[in-house]
Structure prediction request, 384 residues.
Amino acid sequence: MKVLTACLLAGVSLLARAATIPTGFVKAYNQKFMLGSAEYTLVGSNSYWVGLTGLNSTEMNQAFADIAATGATTVRTWGFNEVTAPINYGAYYQLWTNGTAAVNYGANGLQNFDMVVAAAKANGLRLIVTLTNNWSDYGGMDVYVSQILGAAGYHDDFYTNPTVIAAYKNYINAFVSRYEAEPGILAWELCNEPRCTGSPGTQSGACSTANLTITTWAREISAYIKSIDSNHLVGLGDEGWFNEPSSPYYPYQGGEGIDFNANLAIYTLDYGTLHLYPFSWGQTTDPIGFGNMWITDHATSQKNYNKPVIVEEFGVTNTQNQTTTYTSWYSTILSSGMTGDLIWQAGSYLPSGPTPNDGYTIYPNETTLYEMETQHAAAIKARG
Prediction:
């Protein structure tokens, strides 16, 4: 579907109507994003739930309006939900039956995602769309593996099995080609947080940085997306693990099968990504200091490879001193020259109730944190 019809813009608020509707396609140039001859400042939030939880167009619009009010330019969201039986609430994008997948083009499938794109655009926002998940939330890789290979399959077969790869490419083709000419999409991402292991916690033993398992897969899949869509940027969507086995810090040691620098060097990946969750990663002695080091070291890679790099997920929960942490990390993002950032995650109060709260969520009535986002968006835009 090349053009989103006007009917999808029903329920657009006055704020949304005043927004500048995105036109043109964002490109990567050296360490910046560019829109025509002007720099595009990438700053905003994650909203994985906006196209999955049964929101109508009015509620989608309100959710995006709340994000746009901070000065955000960009939102990252999920473009997947793998199911093995139809669901009656929310949206799903691919239905698996006895090892065969069918893309859902209906009102609770890609037509629903059409509304997501329209609502984001109406609020002047562009979307980074992630196409599968390392984790079992909303299906992800393990549905492909279990449906095609059964109990004999390992999580990392997703990266190497030809039949699994072909099935994923089929989904990519259906989703990506639908929006090839859509300026409301900023970028496609191959996976949310790819690792050798996933929710089952098992792998074949062959997946590793030494074997370049995920790097080889990322090279193939990113090239495939480029072959069917030359308009949009492509990113990996990884957490930014380094491959330095002698480091005292686990996220630097390469044990998850990700080599950030090797992946950043892939020609068909336009930008690098990193996530930042020190408590989840066992970095509890000095989580703020670890985060600042993590940002600074990735900014060094950004400069060395001369590509944009974004902190596309970061956060601590509401029990872990968010204000002090974000004040420090935002300062480091600005001073390090990091290209952009997207906090995890946005929240809204909608007629159907509050959007999902995982402890990281920032709602508009949380004055200090919401205002901090607003101030940071202004600061990173002013930095140029």
About this structure: The chain has one domain: 6-383. Confidence is low (pLDDT under 50) at residues 1-17.
